[in-house]
Specification:
The chain is α/β, with parallel strands linked by helices. The protein starts with a strand and ends with a helix. Helix content is 34%, strand content 20%. A hairpin with a 3-residue loop joins strand 13 and strand 14. The chain has 13 helices and 19 strands. Helix 8 packs across helix 11, helix 9 packs across helix 13 and helix 11 crosses helix 12.
Length: 473
């Protein structure tokens, strides 16, 4: 039996799993990682702390099988920014000059002023992020570092990595970047590469020199083999064998999509059964919800990130919708706090999330996506009320993966492909992904939710009006 290791670096912990060639998770381990919040909306981490956690979980699970049977390693991580100096040592991203804190986390919003100025440029690269860039992407964070920490950080910086790419560098010594991270978070184009005019326009022309060495000039598709595999130093630290294949990495949500969207559904009587994979939408439900839709040709969807070429599935375009801090808003709260009211509030929250998903789905369909089946994974997919509500409100069947840990499976699929045991990512997805439950919509509820959705759209419209009023203060 061949095995593959997937390592997932989430917001607050690192998880690892050993997965066999049939997609079964054999064993897994978890290790917490530290977060610093020096002030509101500032979130920092340590690349040394994260790598140490990766080594801890890897050693725990590697000892459970014969090392010679572990054939490949794949990483995924949050889209956080790692800063290293010219000697690849950690470099401070804080005014205190604490070099150990060298990561600006994905959820950090310190660069809101910078992202506003980027959006005011109306540059063409913004067309590929739904028209508006987020402060969670890397260009505004890089602007912030240059403007606020020029002497502490910017002038000493030698390398800027997305966290997932930092991990593959740490494992192999190769500065290869993932097409997933650069296309989704850095404005890189799979077709034309870096747009130097954009960097110059936002005052970061420094990044265009020396063939873009600080931000990456060797870019490969996810799952490709990085360098010469695991170095002897990394192998000892991780408790693995030197030279095993290390895959080009993915952002964590994209790994979840990879782990669930390609499962074989033959014989399940689903609308997507005889159609291409582009008829499927992956819904990764965790702290936030991500909606991953793929297409053969680029589709531009207002307010939805992408289209990103080969960012998740090779040779296909990706659009990514999302709901941050899922379920945060509910309208119509009552003053009472009885158990019945709590139950109603809970139900309303679940409905609101599902109605939001339908809104994203319909916006993608209007732009050209032809989705007819949802594939769901993540923590909330364990909640059958949440799943059934999504099915009822979208009117579509929902496929749940047999393996709940689809993000870890997705990372392991990368390692499986890099090892050469599968001829394509798609083959690995199909053979290692397994279908679990299938939830169908309750058609008796259709009329009720059609009316509920009209109310939801009115609330969205009103909310935009309220925001516009408050912006005039």
């Amino acid at each position: 039996m061949h095995y593959y290791m997937g390592i997932d670096v989430g917001t607050a912990s690192v998880r690892a799993a050993l997965v066999d060639q049939n997609g079964k998770v054999i064993v897994q381990a978890e290790q917490p990682i530290q977060i610093w919040e020096p002030q509101p909306d500032y979130y920092e981490q340590s690349s040394a702390d994260i790598w140490a956690a990766c080594c801890t979980v890897s050693k725990k699970i590697a000892q459970t099988v014969d090392l010679s049977n572990i054939r490949g390693l794949g990483f995924d991580a949050t889209c956080s920014l790692v800063v290293l100096d010219v000697n690849f040592e950690p470099l401070a991203v804080n005014a205190e000059g604490v070099n150990n804190r060298n990561i600006i986390m994905w959820m950090d919003h310190r660069a809101v002023d910078q992202v506003d100025r980027i959006n005011q440029t109306k540059h063409g690269v913004l067309n590929y992020v739904g028209g508006v860039m987020s402060p969670e992407m890397q260009p505004p964070k890089l602007m912030w570092l240059k403007e606020k920490l020029r002497s502490i950080c910017w002038e000493k910086a030698g390398h800027f990595f997305d966290l997932a790419d930092f991990l593959s560098w740490k494992a192999t010594g190769a500065t290869t970047r993932s097409l997933c991270t650069l296309v989704c978070k850095w404005t890189y184009s799979a077709e034309t590469g870096w747009d130097d005019c954009f960097w110059q326009q936002i005052g970061l022309e420094d990044l265009t020199v020396d063939n873009h060495s600080k931000i990456g000039n060797h870019v490969l598709c996810p799952g490709s083999c990085v360098g010469n595999g695991l170095t002897s130093i990394a192998a000892e630290a991780l408790g693995l064998s030197k030279g095993i294949a290390v895959a080009v990495s993915l952002i964590d949500a994209h790994a979840g999509g990879l782990g669930v969207i390609g499962v074989d559904v033959r014989g399940c009587n689903l609308p997507c059964e005889t159609k291409p994979i582009t008829s499927r939408l992956a819904l990764i439900c965790g702290t936030s919800s991500c909606h991953m839709g793929i297409s053969k040709n680029p589709i531009f969807v207002p307010g939805v990130w992408g289209p990103y070429y080969s960012a998740m599935v090779p040779d296909l375009w990706l659009n990514e919708g999302g709901q941050s801090a899922t379920g945060k808003l509910v309208t119509g709260l009552a003053l009472s706090n009885s158990l019945d009211d709590l139950a109603k509030l809970y139900l309303a929250t679940v409905q609101a999330i599902a109605l939001g998903t339908r809104h994203i789905l319909e916006t993608m369909q209007k732009a050209g996506h032809q989705v007819d089946t949802l594939f769901m994974c993540g923590g909330l997919s364990k909640n059958l009320l949440f799943v059934q509500m999504h099915s009822d409100i979208s009117g579509m069947p929902i496929v749940l993966a047999e393996e709940v840990e689809s993000v870890l499976l997705g990372a392991a699929i990368l390692g499986a492909y890099a090892s050469g045991d599968f001829k394509s990512i798609q083959e690995a997805m199909e053979k290692m992904g397994k279908i679990g439950k299938v939830i169908h919509p309750d058609l008796k509820q259709k009329r009720f939710y059609e009316h509920k959705y009209k109310v939801f759209l009115k609330l969205v419209e009103h909310q935009r009006e309220y925001r516009a009023i408050m912006q005039n203060i």
